[in-house]
Design brief:
CATH superfamily of the largest domain in chain B: P-loop containing nucleotide triphosphate hydrolases
Oligomer: heterodimer
Helix content of chain B: 25-40%
Number of helices of chain B: 21
Shape of chain B: globular
Distance between the termini of chain A: 37 Å
Largest sheet of chain B: 6 strands, mixed
Largest interface: A-B, 49 and 67 residues
Number of strands of chain A: 0
Radius of gyration of chain B: 24 Å
Order of helices and strands of chain A: HHHHHHHHH
Helix content of chain A: over 70%
Number of domains of chain A: 2
Structural class of chain B: alpha/beta
Strand content of chain A: under 5%
Largest sheet of chain A: none
Number of domains of chain B: 3
Radius of gyration of chain A: 21 Å
CATH class of the largest domain in chain B: Alpha Beta
């Protein structure tokens, strides 16, 4: 099993490859590898659900780029953003946030920063549930909250309760963490985080690997 | 651990800063001492300062809340104002009211380990405590589960495990029963009893006295920030509770009426010492069995409704009728599908089979906005709907959008729910009970013919419950059909003439509350327990 830091380093290498790729062909190839990986691990449905969120964002980004820099640039920008977010989706699919946070603490990241980052991720599904509850409550009394411009003027009915609840939840979370000794000095870690030989090989081997990939791309062109 | 105690000296607290001239003290000069021998029940009406008091015991007040703090609190000799929360969190553990927001790790195991890591324990000790605690609470099977995806009852157990693992001398619990169904409440009650017997102090704030009073060794009544009474429950029950914001267990009411000494604190103890025919019959709760279940067309008819998301049967073949001027309760344990059913009726979920009719008209193809004119729903959490600056605007907004605004009707509702003093206030600043009343008025503002209330009594005091029973009577007199969704059977018995038991998505038995409670098989399968009144007095013919 790889150390979370190794997985993070490999993800960053992958992200660099995606950022540097400047043709639809290569970006398509990289996205294809990630999607095959997602399918092999049977996470396709979760990915599709997640795509529903990310796809409009990528398309919007692509349209803006098309408008300012042409069609090809727009297509590349949209696919690049989609592939880039997909690689981090894959990373978090195989990496529990607390393990990442704890291993980063081992690498001298301040504990409060690492843990708050990790704990925030736990609350994404909770906020999602609250958002659905707000929509249900408002629609039940005749306030039409649907995606699109038609109900745009009613969005405060969705955003206000959700924002207030999110702030309240953040307060509750901070209180709960403090009540469990979050800021107490001398914390130990149940799980040991140690970079093994394979981790070092992959972290160190990733850099020449990156250079090799770009060299091959160069040859192909 | 018995030497660890909590001591307060002239403790006062106000949420406002002292710069504010009109300071309103939530706690006023409290002097008390709590040891690990105590099983202390703190009761009092909503807003009397119970939750605030608990937060002073573990130092969250004054370190986390920056109001005005005076006097002092000592925990194991440490003055909380001078020591951080983290320095005393292993001496007194606090279980918050809402378990969902206090669980923030990706698995149950990590949730329990978090506090032990904060203590700086070795791996070996952490492992041992993790195993001991999960065995004690029988939650070993949950260790790899995601806390946010557990049921409410399981989340409550995990939150308790998190605290127990720290081995505190005293555990503080803030309304732990408010969202639990009878089966989960019983489980928690037995656990707390055994934890106390093993030498850990329990301090519990709770409205549901029937779950706590029989086990408590000490009772404290808090009123307007002051301790009105403090002593053993046996000594106090005859002098206490002069105002009705406390819902006394029925056994205690009987004991007081018959002047029994010592007074039994629960139904089982009372039944041991007195026969049924000597019980004061006037204390029996009689369900409104005279509800006008007319032979005429029902207001709402649900026929063979099924909801099967992801091929999982969440609702299976549900059928029932609701008539004008009737209140019917849908009762069942947590996760039975009660809220899902009302979402299907409202059109928020799309049913896979079955028909829904209002006054004989099929509404299956109607949009939510069309149904909203005829059905008003008050969901459990009013905070999900508030977005206007004043209560008045909040009540009117739905009716105006639906073009069903009627000034006279709104004025009548404001009067009915006693909302006049609140009209210009922001809905966000109201108390829990006030928010519920605003949400009820908002749900009724568009003049619906069917009114649905989802767990209206959760976390509310007896004063609110009694007012709600009267309100339901008044609404019934307007020929409204009322659906009451609840696991609070005592409340359902007082206000609903018919019950529909829902368990695992299946409706077991629509009928008379006493008939249902007599059916031990259905009650047992649904994890429900007959009300105290039914247990003591039996059915109508007894």
């Amino acid at each position: 099993m790889l150390d979370p830091r190794t997985k993070l380093a490999l993800t960053f290498y992958g992200a660099i490859i995606i950022i540097m790729s400047s043709s639809l062909k290569y970006l398509g190839f990289e996205a294809g590898i990630l999607i095959i990986w997602i399918i092999i691990y049977r996470q396709g449905l979760i990915y599709l659900r997640w795509l529903k969120l990310v796809l409009p964002m990528s398309l919007f980004f692509g349209v803006i780029t098309w408008w300012t820099a042409g069609l090809m640039a727009g297509e590349i920008a949209a696919l690049k953003l989609l592939t880039l977010t997909t690689i981090f989706f894959v990373f978090f699919l195989f990496q529990e946030p607390e393990d990442l946070a704890n291993s980063l603490v081992k690498a001298k990241m301040p504990y409060p920063i690492a843990f708050v980052m990790a704990a925030s991720l736990q609350f994404v599904p909770v906020i999602n549930r609250r958002a659905k509850a707000v929509i249900d409550a408002q629609r039940s009394r005749g306030i039409p909250i649907y995606p699109g411009w038609a109900s745009f003027r009613h969005y405060p009915a969705f955003l206000m309760p959700l924002l207030i609840q999110t702030f309240q939840m953040a307060e509750d979370l901070a209180e709960a963490m403090e009540a469990r000794g979050f800021s107490r000095p001398g914390r130990t870690f149940y799980k040991e985080y140690q970079l093994k030989i394979l981790d070092w090989v992959l972290i160190a081997g990733g850099l020449p690997g990156l250079l090799g990939y770009f060299y091959i791309l160069d040859l192909c062109q | 651990m018995a030497f660890i105690k909590i001591e307060t000296e002239k403790l006062g607290y106000a949420y406002a800063n002292s710069a504010n001239a009109k300071i309103s003290w939530v706690l006023k000069d409290l002097n008390l001492e709590i040891t690990a021998k105590d099983y202390l029940l703190i009761c009092g009406p909503s807003g009397c300062g119970k939750s605030t008091l608990l937060r002073t015991f573990n130092g969250l007040i004054p370190h986390f809340y920056h109001g005005t703090f005076r006097g002092q609190v000592k925990v194991a000799g440490l003055i909380t104002a001078k020591h951080s929360v983290a320095a005393i969190f292993d001496k007194v553990g606090l279980l918050f009211q809402n378990p969902e927001t206090q669980l923030f790790n990706s698995t149950v195991a990590k949730e329990i380990i978090f506090g032990l890591e904060s203590l700086g324990l070795s791996r070996k000790k952490i492992k041992a405590r993790l195993e001991d605690t999960t065995k004690q609470l029988a939650i070993t099977n949950l260790l790899s589960k995601i806390p946010q995806k557990l049921s409410g009852g399981q989340q409550q157990l995990v939150a308790l495990a998190v605290i127990l693992a720290l081995k505190p001398a005293i555990i503080l619990l803030d309304e732990p029963y408010s969202n639990l169904d009878p089966a989960n409440a019983d489980k928690l009650r037995n656990l707390l009893k055994s934890i106390h017997q093993q030498g850990t102090g329990i301090v519990i704030c709770e409205h549901r006295l029937a779950c706590t009073l029989p086990d408590a060794t000490r009772l404290m009544l808090l009123h307007q920030g002051k301790i009105e009474q403090d002593g053993s429950p046996q000594k106090l029950i005859n002098s206490l509770f002069s105002f009705h914001a406390l819902e006394l267990p029925l056994a205690v009411k009987v004991a007081r009426k018959l002047k029994l000494n010592p007074a039994p604190l629960d139904t089982a103890s009372l039944q041991k010492i007195i026969s049924r025919n000597k019980l004061p019959i006037e204390l029996r709760t009689i369900p409104p069995s005279h509800d006008p279940v007319k032979k005429a067309r029902p207001l709402l008819e649900v026929k063979g409704l099924s909801f099967l998301p992801k091929k999982k049967a969440v609702l299976k073949d549900i059928s029932f009728k609701l008539f004008a001027g009737e209140c019917m309760a849908i009762v069942g344990p947590n996760g039975a599908g009660k809220t899902t059913l009302i979402k299907n009726i409202m059109g928020l979920n799309r049913s896979h089979k079955g028909r829904i009719q209002i006054k004989g008209q099929d509404i299956n193809e109607q949009k939510v906005s069309q149904r909203a004119g005829q059905i008003g729903i008050a969901f459990q959490n009013p905070d999900n709907q508030f977005f206007k600056l004043t209560v008045k605007e909040e009540i009117e907004v739905g009716a105006k959008i639906l073009n069903r605004f009627d000034k006279k009707w709104i004025a009548w509702l404001i009067n009915l729910f006693c909302l006049h003093p609140l009209l210009e206030r922001s809905p966000f600043t109201l108390s829990g009970g006030e928010k519920k009343r605003v949400a009820f008025a908002a749900a009724l503002a568009a003049k619906p013919i069917i009114f649905i209330m989802d767990e209206p009594t959760a976390g509310q005091d007896a004063f609110f419950r009694h007012s709600l029973i009267k309100l339901i009577k008044q609404l019934k007199s307007l020929e409204l059909g009322i659906l009451l969704i609840t696991h609070d059977l005592a409340f359902a018995e007082s206000s609903a003439g018919r019950w529909l038991v829902l368990n695992n998505g299946q409706a077991a038995f629509p009928g008379d509350p006493w008939q249902i409670m007599e059916n031990k098989k259905i009650m047992g399968q649904a994890g429900l327990k007959a009300t105290d009144s039914f247990q003591l007095f039996g059915n109508k013919n007894a």
